[in-house]
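User: I'm curious whether this sequence folds into something compact or stays loose and floppy. Could you predict its structure so I can see for myself?
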Amino acid sequence: MNTAADMPPTDPAAPRLRLADWLWRPWYAKAWWATIPVWWIGMAASTKIAPLEAFYDSAPAGFLNVLFFPMTALLALGVGYAQDWLTAFAPQGEGDPISDEARARIARLWEEHDRAMEDIRAGSDIHDPRSGALYIGNPISPNNGARISVF
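Assistant: Here's the prediction. I'll summarize afterward.
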């Protein structure tokens, strides 16, 4: 019977990644999220207030529309989270190195694959004489005798 004393010690679990740590906790994220509704409320108010309308119709306001679009903030702030999330999948180095025999077997398989693909290309290329009927008498082939021009 296994007891707790017989079990090998385990590493403490890594802290769980939380999306909120990237999307809301930094000060710049809070400022960005707080500015987004202000921007869009200003755009709604621009339908009634002439100076705001002039600003929101300008080219810089068009660029700011993209900056204050919520999906832009979500994508930009989520990049750090996605990077950390992907690094969590890094290999731990528990595998065995590949043997020379396995490398040779893989190389042979790749050579067979390349030969098979070359055969497929040769049989389906209208410009390759090995394709038989696709090549012979092909009206768009430059080697077709009917297309030879005197000029």
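Summary: The mean pLDDT is 82. Residues 100-147 form one domain.
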